[in-house]
Design goal:
2 domains, binds pyridoxal-5'-phosphate, Aspartate Aminotransferase, domain 1, alpha/beta, Aspartate Aminotransferase, domain 2, 13 strands, four-stranded antiparallel sheet
């Protein structure tokens, strides 16, 4: 009864909630299986950095205190590493939160936000919740961004353009030259959000130096996360880099303690754990080599990737996803992204990658 009486903005009323996955233990109980593996959420299969674990342990007994609301030490370290002032840095509860704060800070109902399609599912959701129009520009046939069409989609109402680079769920990368041409064409009144959640995995030498545009004073906000290569998805830690005035506005909107004490300590320690990063990169390179080789041998096409995940064209993606799930191998179905012929696979540990391929062979799935 009260639902009818309470007025809710149209953008919220028409939102379709993001369906949360079940805990693995629950899924296993329902399916009557055990020992399943998850290659579905682009997490780091190596685990968190040991240095980060130690840093978290050292902070546990101080949890009666509020976090450092300025995130002083993490910002100082990031500022040294990235060559930007601390006032150009924003930290948050995962880059998800930072995306949301950017939008809440700058969007007004009626504005539009330009993004690729398919891309990270959060962009259209938050746009709609803000009462704004999400202009989704289809990717090209090779599943890379169509930058000319992205520019053409910008109107006087456009406030933000989102570019995930590498893009999720495709793993594809936008190159430096195309980015530079885009930056020349885009009006100065539009904020360009470069979502670089997977940048640490990129091996291409053609990756755009988006930070140089921030440093040159352009309205570019670069987002990064500790959830992927740093292996801290469960703690929620991310950062954004942008011009001081943009970060200043965003700071007015955020909650005072939006990155918790453990996340701050873990992120700081993980940044310095070169061995963990090197190991993670090596696992990813070897895993991609192995999986691309095996899938090709089975006659499946894999989409070239610069991330820790990739798309495989398996025909009926929903069926393959289901069959693998029943055998305890969890990948990501892609029908919700308009890519029903594909599944998305996150690179796992060598044993996990082998199990995926063995299960596909056992199920007799081939092209
Ligand atoms: C492109 C992209 N951006 C942002 C995120 C969010 O990451 P975080 O865990 O930092 O919120 C993800 C997570 O999957 C992602 O794929």
């Amino acid at each position: 009864m009260s639902r009818e009486k309470i007025k809710v903005p149209d953008g919220i009323a028409s939102l379709i909630p993001y369906p949360p996955g079940k805990p693995i233990e629950e899924l296993e109980r329902e399916l009557g299986i055990s020992g399943s593996i998850k290659l579905a959420s682009n997490e780091n299969p190596i685990g968190p950095s040991k240095k980060a674990i130690e840093a978290v342990k050292a902070k546990l007994s101080g949890l009666n205190r509020y976090p450092d609301g300025s995130n002083f030490y993490l910002k100082r370290k990031l500022s040294e590493r990235l060559g930007v002032s601390e006032d150009m840095l924003f930290t948050g509860n995962g880059s998800n939160e930072i995306i949301e704060i950017l939008m809440r800070t700058f969007l007004q109902p009626g504005d539009s936000v330009v993004m690729g399609s398919p891309s990270f599912a959060v962009y259209p959701l938050v746009t709609q919740a803000a009462g704004c129009e999400a202009i989704e520009v289809p990717l090209k046939a090779d599943l890379t961004y169509d930058m000319e069409k992205m520019v053409a989609a910008i109107t006087g109402k456009t406030k933000i353009v989102f570019i995930a680079n590498p893009n999720n769920p495709t793993g594809t990368m936008l190159g430096a030259e195309e980015f530079s041409a885009f930056m020349e064409a885009v009006p100065g009144s539009v904020i360009i959000c470069m979502d670089e959640a997977y940048c640490e995995y990129v091996t291409s030498t053609d990756y755009p130096d988006s930070l140089s545009y921030v440093k040159a004073g352009r309205p570019v906000v670069v987002m990064r996360t500790f959830s992927k290569i740093y292996g801290l998805a469960g703690l929620r830690a991310g950062y954004g880099v942008g011009p001081e005035y943009i970060i200043d506005y965003m700071n007015r909107v955020r909650q005072p303690f939006n990155m918790n004490t453990l996340a701050q300590a873990a992120a700081l320690a993980a940044l310095d754990d070169d061995e963990h990063i090197e190991k993670s990169l090596e696992n990813n390179r070897n895993g991609l080599d192995y999986l691309f080789g095996e899938f090709s041998a089975l006659g499946f096409e894999c989409v070239p990737t610069e991330a820790n995940f990739f798309l495989v064209k398996v025909g009926d993606g929903a069926n393959v996803y289901d069959a693998l799930l029943k055998r305890g191998v969890i990948v990501r179905p892609m029908a919700g992204y308009g890519l029903g012929e594909y599944i998305r696979v996150t690179v796992g540990l060598p044993d996990e990658n082998r199990r995926l391929i063995d299960t596909i062979k056992e199920l007799g799935i081939s092209n």
